[in-house]
Amino acid sequence: MQARGIHHLGVAVEDLDEALATYTRFFGAEVEHRATVDEQGVRAASLRIGDGRVELLEPLGGDTPVGRFLAKRGPGMHHVAYAVADLRATLAELADAGANLIDGEPREGLFGLEVAFVHPDSVHGVLSEVVSVG
Hints:
Layout: E1 5-12, H1 16-27, E2 30-37, E3 42-49, E4 52-59, H2 65-73, E5 76-84, H3 87-96, E6 107-108, E7 114-118, E8 128-132
């Protein structure tokens, strides 16, 4: 698998609006996109900071993946997302290489992009997302 680069860093937050204000005030972040992603149980916002991107994630409830993350670890770094050209081929390559995939098939993420997650046990404790950027 050859990643094209880091697509974004995901940050779990308790209050999306408060976090948006902080990132805007401290880093000059610009909101690129904001949406509720019911399938993942989050309200999310993608922020552009220079050439980079941060995705803020507020859980819709405590029984969601991000809700459980916050309960266990508190706010902070949630995942690293890697941009790939062909998500299905990437998932096959990762599986063949021995990665423990959370998603065997792509699902819809923010912006309507196809995404899939790799279990943190496979990547030295870091939840990793692969994002199709075609």
